[in-house]
Specification:
Helix content is about 20%, strand content about 30%. It starts with about 25 loop residues before the first strand and ends in a 5-residue tail after the last strand. The chain is an alpha+beta fold. It is elongated. The protein contains three helices and seven strands. A hairpin with a 5-residue loop joins strand 2 and strand 3 (about 65-75).
């Protein structure tokens, strides 16, 4: 029997899409940062521990404006990082543009957790 002949050319799966960090027109959150900030639910653990401060999330926005992945760039713990990431992943963006064309873009989103005294 003939040995199995390897294909003439190997088709490699595409690596993760490259995300621009600097573009002519940065992605914009539909509804503004305020729309995400208003949806944040302060984690009970963070409230009990008195944790407050900024959380910075890197959002990877595709050409359509959808957040395809997110990661914590700066966190404060107490469940705040996870809540911020959840809300950023749910956000919709106007995509970033380079030379007038939508491009996948990595953008930092800064959310603030602040305890209010009543």
């Amino acid at each position: 029997p003939d040995p199995v002949k390897p294909p003439d050319r190997v088709i490699e799966e595409e690596d993760d899409e490259e995300f621009f960090e600097v573009v002519e027109d940065s992605p914009q959150i539909i509804g503004g940062l305020k729309s995400i900030q208003e949806r944040l639910e302060y984690p009970q653990l963070a409230i009990r521990a008195g944790i407050e401060g900024p959380v910075v999330i890197y959002a990877y926005v595709d050409k359509t404006g959808k957040v395809v992945k997110a990661e914590v760039a700066q966190g404060i713990g107490g469940g705040c990082d996870e809540e911020a990431m959840k809300q950023v992943l749910a956000a919709q963006f106007i995509p970033g543009k380079q030379r007038g064309r939508p491009v996948p873009t990595k953008v930092a989103v800064r959310l603030r957790f602040t305890l209010t005294t009543r």
